[in-house]
């Protein structure tokens, strides 16, 4: 079978790439190794309740923002709603014994931070000005507002200023620094390793707006699936690619685990970079680059307990409760816990799915162990999380009914590695490039541009710009 384009992997970047290619009239196929497309986002059902596993909220999804613009360009009808404006996240400040509800809209954020930390007023304004300046300078976050030359999209800010550098420069209060770096958990890179530029692209965009998808992320997946089928894109699941061959004619052939093979002119990989290097032709990268990619560090891992509530025990509209200590920033948020609440019915607020998330080590040596040791570790961490909830959130502990759990080993089952977000974006190491040495062989995904929904979609739009050149 011959296609104009083959896309490997059906995460958001893969789905976006395939749809952009399909909308140009190309014959496109997506191949996914899991039984369902978008396996990390698809979630699961327990006791008649759906649990979203890979997405809870994002910035910039409004119709006049870059995310909404990309949805429109893709022809997707995705219903979104604003989170609670005066506080979408609730932070229990364990050191000072206060509660801090994180709002959005610049003015609201500035006022609340200054009220809680009056000695840091000057630093708050300095920090927010810097985030806005950074965001305004990123072409792929602003191409909905003005035109850019194609080459401008590939001029990434490359200085090594980290989020930790900026926070230390702006503030003295450790509790404030912990509050503003808590969102580093959304991309799995510690504050002293993530560039401030990428932090702005993924998390700081939520200073202006924070959105949920009405009906959960499955609505987004269904919208993609419909648009792909409407544009003639073929979807294959349970198909794991094991080798890509490239001929001098420019034709690529993708060979699958079941022995089948398909040819194409354009091959787009949205799979984990280390898996891509394994199956790509040797000449795709220089030996030093191959070695560098194999040595890329994974993001931190999560251990998640899933539960059910019959009635809310938290303020309506608050997505998360995070337990923040002043030393969390200096400790890179190790052993950090937060709890996500997702009402199944926004009006009735019942039932409510609960995800209690603990940051844990994602190294292979911690989880690639015997079944006996794995079960024992799982039981130990489960007990640890339950004890934390009983201590920090006794009202919740009395009402929650636990139904399942997920460990870094669960993540490996779907994406081949233990980290929660794949490759870590570390300022000290070069990231993955979208182009390779083989013409027509490309890479997309959050490892290429930036983490999160916006970053994953953007990588596909950048590829689309590249193919226009």
* Main sheet overview: 7 strands, mixed
Strand content: 15-25%
Uncertain segments are none
Count of helical stretches? 16
DSSP helix fraction: 25-40%
Radius of gyration: 22 Å
Query: Structural class, from secondary structure content?
Result: alpha/beta
Tell me what the structure shows.
- The chain is an alpha/beta fold and 469 residues long.
- It is 34% helix and 20% strand.
- It has helices at 12-23, 39-42, 66-74, 106-116, 121-136, 163-170, 174-181, 196-202, 217-230, 273-279, 287-294, 364-367, 371-392, 394-399, 408-415, 452-468; strands at residues 2-8, 28-31, 44-46, 49-51, 80-82, 89-93, 98-102, 211-213, 234-236, 241-246, 252-256, 261-269, 301-309, 320-324, 337-343, 352-360, 401-406, 441-443.
- α5 runs antiparallel to α6 (163-170).
- The longest helix has 22 residues, at 371-392.
How would the blueprint of this fold be written?
Layout (H helix, E strand, L loop, with lengths): L1 E7 L3 H12 L4 E4 L7 H4 L1 E3 L2 E3 L14 H9 L5 E3 L6 E5 L4 E5 L3 H11 L4 H16 L26 H8 L3 H8 L14 H7 L8 E3 L3 H14 L3 E3 L4 E6 L5 E5 L4 E9 L3 H7 L7 H8 L6 E9 L10 E5 L12 E7 L8 E9 L3 H4 L3 H22 L1 H6 L1 E6 L1 H8 L25 E3 L8 H17 L1
Parallel strand pairs: 1-2, 1-12, 2-9, 6-14, 12-18
Antiparallel strand pairs: 3-4, 5-8, 6-7, 10-11, 11-12, 13-16, 13-17, 14-15, 15-16
Helix pairs in contact: 1-9, 1-16, 4-5, 5-6, 5-8
């Amino acid at each position: 079978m011959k296609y104009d384009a083959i896309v490997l992997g059906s995460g958001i970047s893969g789905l976006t790439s395939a749809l952009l290619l399909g909308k140009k009239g190309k014959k496109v196929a997506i191949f996914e190794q899991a039984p369902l497309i978008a396996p990390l986002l698809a979630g699961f059902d327990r006791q008649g309740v759906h649990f979203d596993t890979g997405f809870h909220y994002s910035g910039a999804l409004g119709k006049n923002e870059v995310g909404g613009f990309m949805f429109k360009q893709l022809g997707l009808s995705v219903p979104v709603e604003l989170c609670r404006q005066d506080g979408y996240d609730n932070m229990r400040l364990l050191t000072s014994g206060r509660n801090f509800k994180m709002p959005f809209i610049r003015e609201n954020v500035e006022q609340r931070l200054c009220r809680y930390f009056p000695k840091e007023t000057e630093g708050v304004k300095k920090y927010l000005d810097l985030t806005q300046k950074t965001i305004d300078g990123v072409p792929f976050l602003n191409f909905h507002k003005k035109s850019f030359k194609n080459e401008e999209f590939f001029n990434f800010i490359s200085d090594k200023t980290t989020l930790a550098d900026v926070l230390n420069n702006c503030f003295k209060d450790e509790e404030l620094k912990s509050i503003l770096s808590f969102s580093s958990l959304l991309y799995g890179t510690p504050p002293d390793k993530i560039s401030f530029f990428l932090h702005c692209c993924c998390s700081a965009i939520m200073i202006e707006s924070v959105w949920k998808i009405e009906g959960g992320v499955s609505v987004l997946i269904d919208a993609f699936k419909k648009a792909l089928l409407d544009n003639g894109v073929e979807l294959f699941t349970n198909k794991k690619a094991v080798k890509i061959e490239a001929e001098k004619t420019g034709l690529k052939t993708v060979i699958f685990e079941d022995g089948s093979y398909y040819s194409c002119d354009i091959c787009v990989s949205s799979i984990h970079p280390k898996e891509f290097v394994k199956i790509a032709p040797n000449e795709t990268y220089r030996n030093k680059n191959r070695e560098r990619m194999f040595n890329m560090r994974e993001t931190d891992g999560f251990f998640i307990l899933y539960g059910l509530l019959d009635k809310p025990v938290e303020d309506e509209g608050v997505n998360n409760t995070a337990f923040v200590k002043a030393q969390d920033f200096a400790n890179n948020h190790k052993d950090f816990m937060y709890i996500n609440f997702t009402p199944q019915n926004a009006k009735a607020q019942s039932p409510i799915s609960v995800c209690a998330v603990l940051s844990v080590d994602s190294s292979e040596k911690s989880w690639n162990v015997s079944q006996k040791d794995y079960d024992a570790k799982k039981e130990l961490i489960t007990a640890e999380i339950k004890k934390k909830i009983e201590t920090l959130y006794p009202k919740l502990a009395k009402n929650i009914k636990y139904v399942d759990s997920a460990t870094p080993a669960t993540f490996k089952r779907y994406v081949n590695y233990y980290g929660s977000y794949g490759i870590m974006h570390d300022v000290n190491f070069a990231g993955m490039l979208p182009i390779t040495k083989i013409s027509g062989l490309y890479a997309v995904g959050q490892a290429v541009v930036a983490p999160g929904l916006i970053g994953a979609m953007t990588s596909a739009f950048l590829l689309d710009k590249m193919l226009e050149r």
